[in-house]
Specification:
Length: about 190
């Protein structure tokens, strides 16, 4: 499926332009750790505050126990499409370090690692849809995380599927053009992109 991309004010590298967040994922696709390896490697080499690397990625493949646990905590509007993807990942931040001190940049660092993951995944022909619509506390319990860890977001990962498989309302959303604020609104100071 081709996707309507909003007008770019400047040209960006292909893989950034190709990234978007679909809901239709290939339902017959079987993913494994080898297929996701490059994307996790990209996340691994992401920068972090003091090289603290305060992230853990809990991955489940469709049909396994971890997948069921993660998908089972999703809000119904997410569950309806995400349950068909090849893989889901719980993005976990270590918000407290080994000495018991708060790691104030942990969530920032995790987000950046997820960005690296999603860009590498796109380069590998996979799509990533991040998600905050899930029950983080329940999932932390179900995954036996300790109190220093927080599930911040989920990622749904897989190849693009057929939008015709989605409920009608989501088919319309899937085709909606992507929009962004203009550069002039988000970059201020000594630059003027108006
Ligand atoms: C932290 C975060 C939470 C999100 N939560 C959800 C979600 O619960 N459900 C959903 O369908 N999309 C979710 N998204 C996807 C965003 O809606 C999407 O990234 C945004 O609309 C921009 O679209 P694009 O990724 O296609 O460029 C989330 C994205 C991020 C980064």
């Amino acid at each position: 499926m081709s996707h309507e991309h909003g007008a770019h004010q400047f040209t960006v590298t292909d893989v950034l332009e190709q990234r978007w967040s679909p809901r239709a994922f290939a339902r017959d696709e079987v993913l494994d750790q080898k297929r996701l390896g490059p994307a996790f490697e990209a996340a691994r080499w992401s920068p972090s505050s003091g090289n603290s690397q305060p992230w853990t990625f809990v991955v489940g493949f469709r049909g396994d126990d971890i997948f069921q646990k993660i998908v089972g905590t999703m809000a119904s509007g997410n569950h309806v499409w995400a349950q068909h993807a090849g893989a889901v990942v719980a993005n976990v931040a270590s918000v407290v370090d080994a000495e018991g001190n708060p790691q104030s940049h942990a969530v920032y660092d995790l987000g950046q690692a997820v960005a690296h993951f999603s860009i590498q995944a796109t380069a590998e022909g996979l799509m990533v849809h991040q998600m905050s619509g899930f029950d983080a506390q329940t999932l932390g319990r179900d995954l036996d995380l300790d109190s220093s860890q927080r599930v911040v977001t989920l990622m749904v990962v897989g190849s693009l599927g057929d939008p015709a498989d989605l409920p009608e309302k989501l088919q319309e959303r899937e085709a909606r053009p992507r929009e962004r604020k203009p550069l002039s609104e988000i970059v201020v100071g000594s630059a003027n992109y108006a």
